[in-house]
Amino acid sequence: MTKPPTAPSERAPQDLLRLDRQLCFSLNAASRAFGAVYRTLLKDLGLTYPQYLVMLVLWEHTELPVKRLGELLRLDSGTLSPLLKRLEAAGLVHRERSAQDERSVLVRLTPAGTVLREEAALVPVRIATATGFTAQEAGELRALLEKLTLALDGAAFDDGSLCD
Amino acid sequence: MTKPPTAPSERAPQDLLRLDRQLCFSLNAASRAFGAVYRTLLKDLGLTYPQYLVMLVLWEHTELPVKRLGELLRLDSGTLSPLLKRLEAAGLVHRERSAQDERSVLVRLTPAGTVLREEAALVPVRIATATGFTAQEAGELRALLEKLTLALDGAAFDDGSLCD
DNA sequence: GGGCATTTAATTGCGCACAACTTAATCGTG
DNA sequence: CACGATTAAGTTGTGCGCAATTAAATGCCC
């Protein structure tokens, strides 16, 4: 039942397979658990979790093109276009072609979208409570996650071992 | 532009909002970055990332009911049923009603599904390389994620502040 | 200025995640 | 044994994530 401590360099393939499963899986599980808590908290606001992320960006920037929104959230137009269409149907955002560059579409908060910020003010507090994390733990976790994301992004593009 | 250091107990709502965004978002981003790397690695095997997770469980347990599979992966039949149907169509698993309990469906590896394990052997190694993480870092991250998941699961169910 | 590559959104198609519901088998209690 | 409650899978519908494609505007270079 107990696993003998093994030096990293001597790990057997089975251990790697297990370790791997646990890391990618625990990340997946945590992400979905987070989503579940957000979902219950956001139900009253009529927002999904990804929609909430978009609103968070807009509450900081007020108006910005879809392109920039996608860069900030790591999402492409295939995801954002229908999502923004739903937010527009809900009356929270307005979309219009940029006058300077007619290819670009500017997303802007409506008054209703701006007001929603007040109603959403409690969400982060409740989330922080739900995690039970201290600021140190949260910071530590974020640092690890950002390091991981950076490494994985790099590997996906310029690591030859992945693209054989 | 620079943020003055503030004691956690005195954080203003805006800071909480930002911190919150960064934590849930970095988790989301890392999870999707992970998925992207797996996707490229698994393309040759004809597996999606969730399908790979199912196969990982099956490679350990050989045969088990859908119910148990769902518990291990935190997925319900709404997700697993069509996924398993696709794995069965690909010839990797076999499904049949349990004789003991006709409500239950047993999922079992086919010979092809068993053989696929050999082909998948390199995946965890490449993933480990892509993360660039030491075993310590990976362990530390997993510990934080599991603690987080546990806290979030608890909050979703028995925390009154979430269900008002 | 004309023609071609690039950029930006939108659309289409597929698979996953989840809620709500349906169906069928089993359990429990009288 | 009967009958209501519970349990396990499957189905349906909605939304997200992403690849691939399309359409339109812009930039560039001769």
Describe this structure as you would to a colleague.
The structure is a homodimer of 164-residue chains. With 164 residues, the first copy, chain A, is mainly alpha-helical. Helix content of chain A is 65%, strand content 8%. Chain A has helices spanning 13-42, 49-61, 66-73, 77-89, 111-119, 122-131, 135-158, and strands at residues 63-65, 93-97, 105-109. At the A-B interface, helix 1, helix 2, helix 6 and helix 7 of A face helix 1, helix 2, helix 6 and helix 7 of B. Chain A binds a DNA duplex (30 and 30 nucleotides) through helix 1, helix 2 and helix 4.
Give the SSE layout:
The structure is a homodimer of 164-residue chains.
Chain A: H1 13-42, H2 49-61, E1 63-65, H3 66-73, H4 77-89, E2 93-97, E3 105-109, H5 111-119, H6 122-131, H7 135-158
Antiparallel strand pairs in A: 1-3, 2-3
Helix pairs in contact in A: 1-6
Chain A binds a DNA duplex (30 and 30 nucleotides) through helix 1, helix 2 and helix 4.
Distance between the termini of chain A: 38 Å
Strand content of chain A is: 5-15%
CATH homologous superfamily heading of the domain at 26-120 in chain A: Winged helix-like DNA-binding domain superfamily/Winged helix DNA-binding domain
* CATH architecture title of the domain at 26-120 in chain A: Orthogonal Bundle
The oligomeric state of the chains shown is homodimer
Count of DSSP E strands of chain A?
3
Could you tell me the radius of gyration of chain A in angstroms?
A: 20 Å
If you consult CATH, what is the topology of the domain at 26-120 in chain A? Arc Repressor Mutant, subunit A
Major interchain interface with per-chain residue totals: A-B, 64 and 64 residues
Order of helices and strands of chain A: HHEHHEEHHH
Helix fraction of chain A, binned, reads: 55-70%
Q: What overall geometry of chain A do the principal axes of the alpha carbons give?
A: globular
Which ranges of chain A are low-confidence, i.e. pLDDT below 50, for 5 or more consecutive residues? 1-9, 159-164
Number of helices of chain A: 7
Main sheet makeup of chain A: 3 strands, antiparallel
Strand order of the largest sheet of chain A: 1-3-2
